[in-house]
Write a structure and sequence with these properties.
Strand order of the largest sheet: 5-1-7-6
Largest sheet: 4 strands, mixed
Strand content: 5-15%
CATH superfamily of the largest domain: Hypothetical protein, domain 2
Radius of gyration: 25 Å
GO molecular function, one term: 4 iron, 4 sulfur cluster binding
Family: Belongs to the Nth/MutY family.
Catalytic activity: Hydrolyzes free adenine bases from 7,8-dihydro-8-oxoguanine:adenine mismatched double-stranded DNA, leaving an apurinic site
EC number: 3.2.2.31
Shape: elongated
Number of domains: 2
Distance between the termini: 80 Å
Keywords: 4Fe-4S, DNA damage, DNA repair, Glycosidase, Hydrolase, Iron, Iron-sulfur, Metal-binding
Length: about 375
DNA sequence: AAATCGGGGAT
DNA sequence: ATCCCAGATTT
């Protein structure tokens, strides 16, 4: 097994790095977060629990991931249980969490692990679907004690400030992280840097007065820690319009399994995007032809934002001689739940109107 | 290197 | 409204 330290030789002795390690790990031992995937001894954590947590937490804040984590582990307590489950059940347990390729890859990897056992080093983890450099470093350091430095959003921000580097490249961050990693406690060091970034060295208004390593921080000495790193330019969200059909009701409806990278594997209302030079009626006609449906009234419009697109969907009630399925058992995106809410609100409105006009409503 | 892939929290 | 979140994969 080849490690980054052996490839470039041991790092030269640096008193500054030693003091930084001591100060941050001392703080971590005192104030580190108590999280449900941190069961077991340091460097020997349960690989299944760590792996699931690392996948779940990709681009997902810890506070929000906690609930999903509990639900997912209850549904699939072991990698064998996960491997044996149908994909629909895995996506149902992932429902609402977003980035559903994570769940599909987790399921694929579970089958490999069920057959071959858990990988025993960084390279083995990296070879699994859905496992990139960050996750391989996290699992191999936390569960195997391997000296691999993680590079995530927290690490990038913390190191950018420590070195006052406003535009840290991914390569630069990894080099700095490799250099600072405490080879005696790699798992704890990785957890410590991420805890610092998540609770003290936060993006806006960092709490430098409570920071255990402010004495080592170049950005702090400059007096402008909040200026590091510089914000990343993000592409503007694309405007998308679509039409969808509700055939049935909020409990039993005609659902289609979505394919492709966007919400792939999830179920949802039959939907057609309105092309650039189209009207809603054009897309509706395609939907009507595809399903053999009779389109009725428009129930309302749903707005849904998804980082890289801004979605506006007109929901129509329709009738068709097609099998409906129970909505409760299927994994749906937030978008489709919003569409079903439109139906529910309309039903509530009609019920209220009926009460108002009913002779019994006065009683 | 840049785009894509969800959804929500914090400000 | 903007930026970000224990990133990975595809283009």
């Amino acid at each position: 097994m080849t490690l980054p330290v052996s490839a470039s030789g041991p790092a030269p002795f640096s008193p500054e790095v030693g003091a930084l390690r001591r100060d941050l790990l001392g703080w971590f031992d005192r104030a580190g977060r108590d999280l449900p995937w941190r069961l077991g001894d340091e460097g020997r954590r349960d690989p299944y629990r760590v792996w699931v947590a690392e996948i779940l937490l990709q681009q997902t804040q810890v506070a929000r991931g906690l609930g999903y984590y509990e639900r997912f582990l209850e549904a699939f307590p072991t990698v064998q249980a996960l491997a044996a489950a149908p994909q629909d059940a895995v996506l149902k347990a992932w429902e609402g969490c977003g980035y559903y390729a994570r769940a599909r890859n987790l399921h694929r990897a579970a089958a490999i692990i069920d057959e071959q056992g858990f990988p025993q080093d960084y390279a083995g983890w990296l070879a699994l679907p859905g496992v990139g450099p960050y996750t391989a470093a996290a699992v191999s350091s936390l569960a195997l004690g391997e000296p691999r430095a993680v590079n995530d959003g927290n690490v990038r921000r913390v190191l950018s400030r420590l070195r006052a580097e406003a535009h840290p490249s991914d390569k630069w961050v990894q080099e700095q992280a490799d250099r600072l990693l405490d080879p005696a406690r790699p798992g704890a060091w990785n957890e410590a840097v991420m805890d610092l970034g998540a609770t003290i060295c936060v993006p806006k208004s960092p709490a430098c007065d409570r920071c255990p390593v402010s004495a080592h921080c170049a950005a702090y000495q400059l007096g402008q820690p909040g200026d590091f790193p510089a914000p990343k330019a993000r592409p503007q969200a694309r405007e998308v319009r679509a039409v969808a059909l509700l055939i049935g009701d909020a409990e039993y409806a005609v659902l289609e399994k979505r394919e492709g990278s966007l919400l792939g594997g999830l179920f949802g209302l039959p939907l057609e995007e309105i092309g650039a030079r189209e009207t809603a009626a054009d897309a509706l006609a395609r939907l009507q032809a595809r399903l053999g449906a009779e389109v009725k009234e428009c129930l309302g419009t749903v707005q849904h934002g998804m980082t890289h697109r801004r979605l506006s969907v007109e929901v129509y009630r329709a009738e068709a001689d097609r099998p409906r399925q129970p909505v409760r058992g299927a994994a749906l995106s937030r978008l489709d739940h919003k569409a079903l809410d439109v139906w529910r609100q309309r039903q509530a409105g009609l019920f209220g109107a009926a009460l108002d006009s009913s002779p019994l409503g006065e009683a």
